[in-house]
């Protein structure tokens, strides 16, 4: 994450960014430039001028300034100034909440994956490293930033996980990365292959059967301060998805290490809760497996037994994520008896067909939980769209030889709803919602608001869900 300091002045910054709305006075040094491009402070407008000793960038925030609009304006500013090392944000005309949102946009857009870089910083094409937040009410802005920054840090941690290749971020490697989080007060429990057998997690074991890399089930817990049952995030953790015996096409196969973006979002949200010392107890449950091809690979037509004793007929070994989540949801409901569960996964291509790369699909068995999720999503500009689970979707999963079948033939539609119907069955009576983030977990190309690569979608959404819905109960 960029180094951010809250200050009264920033003499060393290479550029000064000023967010302005319609009718707001333009700095003298930018008057001519603003007139030349007809800068009026509208959303999406920018204007650059050169003041003594540094660049000056005006960014439009619109007449109805909202946190989402300010976050977008901050991202737009960072996208213009990535080649600089240090910039300053003049937020003296903003409320503390809007100033924090503006800074969040800068930090999110300024991310890049550094873990495997070997080139020197001088050779790097983008090197924005530090941000000064200029304000008059330092304590108020610092308090607002302290509320927002943990979500940003959690999202960037999730991005780093998703960007890491599958040869290092194996199930074991994923656990190693999570051990670093225990210094923030998070409690880590890891179930290995023998534990998984004893717990009866047959679906997780089946998916990982063809891989030389052993599976794991990870529990990352934030105790909070209350005695109420926890909120649980269940994140799909397929560290590489070859499709198994139903092998996937070589097209875009290099991106299949990102099939653990749901797991990354779940643990990123836990980091955010820990960093801001949330009073609400929460747990992330993450089933981790590599779906590879080997002598012990599970096959279409096999029947796997999940931890609650129910059997599932395998239809397609590439539909592995729903098996992991089904097992993990049943295990979670039995172990924690949570007040709510939210599963999150890059589950189906069908949701991309339906919603494109703009929204995540939202499924649920509890309208109130879904409404709170949608409200949290709007707050952090991670939009979702509620989709149905009908009786027909559940009936289509009836099997001739098992309790359920994993999926339906490819000619059926839409598979996103069928996948959610399977998860619904294993969530049971626990209030549950599912986020299918297949279209929004990464971007192929950068734009003015977002970097290319992983997005960290879901981290800040889940953090806000806990803040708005569950912390009041503690």
Question: What is the third-level CATH name, the topology of the largest domain?
Answer: Aminopeptidase
Taking the alpha carbons of the first and last residues, their distance comes to: 31 Å
**Average pLDDT figure:** 94
Quaternary structure state of the chains depicted = single chain
Give the CA-based shape. Answer: elongated
Q: Please tally the helical runs, counting DSSP H or I stretches of 4 or more residues.
A: 14
The stretches of 5 or more residues where confidence is low (pLDDT under 50) are none
Class from secondary-structure proportions? alpha/beta
Number of domains: 2
Number of strands: 20
Q: Give me the CATH architecture of the largest domain, please.
A: 3-Layer(aba) Sandwich
Strand proportion, as a percent range, falls in: 15-25%
CATH evolutionary superfamily of the largest domain: Zn peptidases
Residue share in helix: 25-40%
CATH class of the largest domain: Alpha Beta
Main pleated sheet? 9 strands, mixed
Q: Rg to the nearest angstrom?
A: 23 Å
Description of the structure:
This protein is α/β, with parallel strands linked by helices. The chain has two domains: 3-136, Leucine Aminopeptidase, subunit E, domain 1 (3-Layer(aba) Sandwich), CATH 3.40.220; 152-473, Zn peptidases (Aminopeptidase, 3-Layer(aba) Sandwich). Helices cover 35% and strands 20% of the residues. The protein has helices at 31-37, 67-80, 96-109, 138-163, 171-179, 193-199, 202-207, 261-275, 320-336, 350-355, 367-379, 391-395, 415-427, 459-470; strands at 3-7, 15-20, 46-51, 54-60, 86-90, 130-134, 187-191, 216-222, 231-235, 237-241, 282-291, 303-305, 311-313, 340-345, 360-364, 384-386, 404-405, 432-436, 442-443, 453-454. The strands form four sheets. Strands 7, 8, 9, 10, 11, 14, 15, 16 and 18 form a nine-stranded mixed beta sheet that branches. Strand 12 (303-305) and strand 13 form a beta hairpin. The longest helix is centred in the first third of the chain and has 26 residues, at 138-163. The model has no long low-confidence stretch (mean pLDDT 94).
């Amino acid at each position: 994450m960029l180094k951010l300091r809250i200050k009264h002045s920033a003499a060393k910054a290479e550029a000064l960014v000023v967010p302005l709305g319609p009718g707001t006075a333009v700095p003298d040094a930018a008057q001519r430039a603003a007139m030349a491009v007809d800068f009026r402070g509208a959303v999406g407008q920018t204007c650059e001028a050169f003041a003594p000793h540094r660049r000056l960038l005006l960014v439009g925030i619109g007449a109805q300034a909202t946190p989402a609009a300010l976050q977008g304006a901050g991202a737009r500013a960072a996208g213009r100034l990535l080649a600089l090392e240090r910039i300053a944000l003049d937020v003296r005309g903003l409320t503390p909440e809007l100033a924090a949102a503006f800074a969040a946009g800068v930090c999110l857009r300024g991310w890049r994956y550094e873990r495997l870089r070997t080139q020197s910083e001088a050779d790097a094409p983008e090197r924005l490293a530090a941000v000064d937040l200029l304000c008059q009410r330092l304590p108020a802005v610092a308090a607002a930033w302290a509320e927002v920054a943990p979500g940003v840090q959690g999202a960037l941690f999730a991005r780093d996980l998703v960007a890491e290749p599958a040869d290092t971020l194996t199930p074991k490697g994923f656990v190693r990365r999570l051990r670093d989080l225990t210094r923030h007060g998070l409690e880590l429990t890891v179930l290995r292959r023998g534990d998984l057998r004893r717990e009866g997690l047959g679906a997780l074991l089946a998916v990982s059967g063809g891989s030389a890399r052993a599976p794991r089930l990870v529990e990352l817990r934030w105790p909070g301060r209350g005695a109420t049952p926890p909120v649980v995030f269940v994140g799909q953790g397929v560290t590489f998805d070859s499709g198994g015996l139903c092998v996937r096409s070589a097209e875009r196969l290099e991106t299949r290490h990102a099939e653990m973006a749901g797991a990354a979002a779940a643990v990123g949200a836990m980091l955010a809760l820990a960093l801001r010392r949330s009073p609400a107890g929460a747990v992330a449950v993450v089933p981790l497996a590599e779906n590879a091809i080997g002598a012990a690979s599970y096959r279409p037509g096999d029947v796997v037994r999940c931890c609650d004793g129910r059997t599932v007929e395998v239809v397609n070994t590439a539909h592995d994520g729903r098996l992991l989540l089904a097992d993990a949801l049943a295990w979670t409901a039995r172990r924690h008896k949570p007040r709510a569960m939210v599963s999150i996964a890059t589950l189906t291509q069908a949701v991309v067909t339906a919603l494109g790369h703009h929204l995540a699909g939202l499924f649920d068995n509890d309208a109130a939980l879904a409404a709170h999720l949608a409200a949290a999503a709007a707050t952090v500009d991670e939009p979702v769209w509620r989709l149905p689970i009908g009786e027909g979707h559940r009936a289509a999963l009836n099997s001739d030889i098992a309790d359920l079948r994993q999926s339906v033939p490819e000619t059926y539609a839409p598979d996103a709803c069928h996948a959610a119907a399977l998860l619904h069955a294993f969530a049971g009576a626990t209030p549950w919602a599912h986020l299918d983030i297949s279209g929004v977990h990464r971007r192929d190309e950068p734009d003015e608001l977002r970097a290319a690569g992983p997005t960290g979608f879901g981290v800040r959404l889940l953090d806000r869900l806990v803040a708005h819905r569950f912390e009041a109960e503690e």
